[in-house]
């Protein structure tokens, strides 16, 4: 069977505003039929705390700590909880809702797209599998998360290894297009991560952080040998090709497209009105 061709973009390290603007632009271009479905890999300069579309920044985030660590801060166009993008590979997938391989429901579309991530972990020698909340208690916990930290618990069809979450993803649907992006952690500094959030007391913070160790893990805490970013990139590129049965073709933005991305970055993602809107 012929494999479908999708575009592949490896942006390298980009600013927080540029990263979110490019994901948004890709969604728009795909909705107009100007580009093929696209998978993009990227990193962050500086390391950045991204907050979900619905989160209340000033209520949940310790902005003084964000500034002290010289981290970036950006609001995503997708939902979910806050993520510290530091030692990780970030991916995004842009594909039409009416693509023949895409289920109609959000959770089932997560499952299909995440097949690529699953294959990537397996290519790195990690025995990953999908998290599926089974009990009513687990399902209710997804609706009322106890913390603002994304990796605090796995959601439907997110990837876990040895019972702990190894990838966090978020999704939005606009203009008939699915945008799913997420983080694949190579390493994680839990003290630094938890310093960025507000808690009702130090005791609550300590308890949450203890629980976190049992719920989330980075690739290099599971692997017998250290895995590099380059090895991760290679494995997940091949993983997406295998998991989605596609062939990835490198794509370069035109000068005009770059201008559009820069404009979106400046007008929306660098704008405090957008960042602190809730």
TrEMBL record:
Active-site residues per Swiss-Prot or TrEMBL entry: 150
Keyword Ribonucleoprotein appears in the UniProt entry: no
Catalytic reaction annotation: octanoyl-[ACP] + L-lysyl-[protein] = N(6)-octanoyl-L-lysyl-[protein] + holo-[ACP] + H(+)
Single Gene Ontology MF annotation: lipoyl(octanoyl) transferase activity
Pfam families: LplA-B_cat
Protein species of origin: Bacillus taeanensis
Taxonomic lineage: Bacteria, Bacillati, Bacillota, Bacilli, Bacillales
UniProt keyword annotations, A-Z: Acyltransferase, Transferase
Record's protein name: Octanoyltransferase LipM
InterPro entries: aa-tRNA-synth_II/BPL/LPL, BPL_LPL_catalytic, LipM, Octanoyltrans_LipM/LipL
Top EC class, one word: transferase
Record note on quaternary structure: Monomer.
BP GO terms, sorted: lipoate biosynthetic process; protein lipoylation
Gene expressing this chain: lipM
Residue stretches making up the BPL/LPL catalytic domain: 33-248
Site location (Lowers pKa of active site Cys): 165
Pathway listed: Protein modification; protein lipoylation via endogenous pathway; protein N(6)-(lipoyl)lysine from octanoyl-[acyl-carrier-protein]
Protein purpose: Catalyzes the transfer of endogenously produced octanoic acid from octanoyl-acyl-carrier-protein onto the lipoyl domain of GcvH, an intermediate carrier during protein lipoylation.
Protein family membership: Belongs to the octanoyltransferase LipM family.
UniProt signal peptide: none
EC number(s) on file: 2.3.1.181
Other known facts: In the reaction, the free carboxyl group of octanoic acid is attached via an amide linkage to the epsilon-amino group of a specific lysine residue of lipoyl domains of lipoate-dependent enzymes. The reaction proceeds via an octanoyl-thioester enzyme intermediate.
